[in-house]
Amino acid sequence: MTDAFRFPAEWEPQSAVLIAWPHAETDWAERLGEVEETYVALVAAITCFQAVIICVADEDLQTYAEARLRSARVDMTRVRFVPAEYDDTWLRDTGPITLRVGDRYKQLDFRFTGWGGKYQAGRDDLLVGELAGMDLFHDYFVQSINFALEGGAIETDGAGTLLTTWKCLHERHPDLPREDLTAKLAGWLKQDRVLWLEHGYLEGDDTDAHIDTLARFASAGSIVFQACDDPADSHFAELGAMGKEIAALRTADGQPYRLFPLPWAQPVLDAGRRLAASYANFLIINGAVLMPAYGDPADDAAAAVLAEAFPGREIVQVPCRALIWQNGSLHCITMQLPDGILA
Length: 343
Prior knowledge:
The protein has helices at 32-46, 59-71, 91-94, 114-117, 127-132, 166-172, 178-189, 236-248, 298-309, 321-324, and strands at 14-20, 51-56, 79-83, 97-101, 104-111, 140-148, 155-156, 161-165, 193-197, 215-219, 222-226, 258-262, 268-270, 273-275, 283-285, 288-293, 314-319, 335-338. Helices cover 26% and strands 27% of the residues. The chain has a single domain, classed as L-arginine/glycine Amidinotransferase, Chain A (5-stranded Propeller). With 343 residues, it is of the alpha/beta class. It has a four-stranded mixed sheet with strand order 3-2-1-18. A three-stranded mixed sheet has the order 4-5-6. The protein has a three-stranded mixed sheet with strand order 7-8-9, sandwiched between helices. The model has no long low-confidence stretch (mean pLDDT 97). The two termini are 21 Å apart.
């Protein structure tokens, strides 16, 4: 039965979204109040459609987070807290990557190295195993894989096609040729093929070009990607080259993808440092797409593109300017859990 497991697309039905609440011992300490506002807005948005599971470092943090959410009139019947230790809150990269076959599930526990050793990540690397020790999921098992891979580095269409960037995977595994990396990803993630992008980067992104900041599947036949239409911007040439690469990709049956280029936000600077304000870092949930908003005129234009790419889903803007201060955005702090896995 193991060979029959499948990696679901993000738009497939979900049980919940998994997040971790920020606190003073994480990298959010300097701007904790600002980022808490984002988390409150995120949980409020998710619980309009489905459940959310929130990791908390201790009982005091749970009490505080619960009070913040109740004051925002969040539907607490859709909120579940679980105790866990974590260095930071980027659960896209530290949470479980879940495969399924029927009503059985397998969670892949890849090594998390702090994006190639950039940050301390000892507790984050243990998170999947820690969650496995709780009565949180059922009919599942964990497969530990001694290979550095972050969830933000991979994107699947749920039908056997994986999209990723060569820059990120090559940085993590410089001694492995592309054929070996392709075979490993296809084998562990049950993919028929792996599409590699050579171009694409964002200043202020320290993940070495995670795909979820650049290009995302909207269906098995369509891709949403971050474009740049400002010739004076330092990203113009690189994102333009990425756009041409994506236009040259073909679906499994040989057809060109339907493409949805996202608008470009004006530069967001913090003490002179450029921050990665990508609209591609959206989160798909049941009945909706949550998109990062940056207080930029392009926010509404990005929402219009996503509405076209995801017909029938509500587009909800979540304020994420506080998140990009720490080099990530909305998708980076979340991990969806497929329908049926919750105990």
